[in-house]
């Protein structure tokens, strides 16, 4: 069973181009993957395919006659194609038939996509970024009329404004009247004898402009920001599509991001880990003091609450996790060696009795493996 494009858009077979356009816009907004998620991608493709056929007069005519848009049989759905053939018979017998009217020159513009890079601080706190886009905008000379100022479109003399012409063809079934888009006006019902010299009768021109994008806190690589009505202006000065700004977060020299939390490593000598100390370090919020408790072990984590990345579309922020790495000296002076031996004697550790256990991956190593995709 082939797809019924009229049923997909929820319109009747006699729907006008404007009705088809309105139905498509509503469904496209409903099933767009950026709104409904990736599960709606197939439905969005089906809606787009239906609109592509039914918004084109020639493709729609072939579809209604039961043929695909490429001329192969089977493009129609149900018995819709046969109903138009029967309608042609009634026209041949003197019936008036139904007229769908001329197509509109005014159409919605396409959506546009642009990508920007942000650093970790901008992703954490948000930023207002100015971007330059090169898109179609409404012609300032004709204001979308497509005509030279002071002139206007004229009724097509070939189709008398209907946008289509009827022809009688002889067949083994007798005389059959067919309807096709008018080739003189392209199915619009009007012609433009004096096009606008600025836009060449398109109603729009290419232009470079600067737009301010407010990047909210919490964005990550792949986040898309929608700017409604900032995309391409449509033919005939039609309404503009939307502009999508896709974010890519740049790698930071010190911090690694995981969700809304950020991580870093601080190396301490074994004496500082054993005795405790206060470490001064730079964070996204400026200089911070990190309290290292006495007896801190390798791979211990000190967490600074609320110093991570802001939550997207929510209040609050993630945390900053400081991973402690304890370094052991590889060279000792005679005095240092004596001090350590005295300490070992004091602690009864001259000949320690080690505990044997399975190898355990450190928290830091697990984190590195995660980001390496292992």
Give descriptors for this structure:
three-stranded mixed beta sheet, HSP40/DNAj peptide-binding domain, 374 residues, alpha+beta, four-stranded mixed beta sheet
The ordered string of helix (H) and strand (E) elements is HHHHHHEHEEEEEEEEEEHEEEEHH
> Which class best fits the helix and strand makeup?
alpha+beta
User: How large is the share of residues in beta strands?
Assistant: 25-35%
Largest β sheet strand count, sense and barrel closure: 4 strands, mixed
Helix content: 25-40%
Record the strand order, biggest sheet. Answer: 10-11-15-14
Named CATH topology of the domain at 256-372: HSP40/DNAj peptide-binding domain
Report the end-to-end length measured between terminal Cα atoms: 46 Å
Radius of gyration: 35 Å
Q: Which CATH C-level class of the domain at 256-372 is it?
A: Mainly Beta
| CATH level-two architecture of the domain at 256-372 | Sandwich
The mean pLDDT is 84
Quaternary state reads single chain
Specify the CATH homologous superfamily of the domain at 256-372. Urease metallochaperone UreE, N-terminal domain
Task: Please give the number of β-strands.
Answer: 15
- What is the number of helices? 10
List unreliable stretches of 5+ residues. 68-99
Q: What is the overall shape? A: elongated
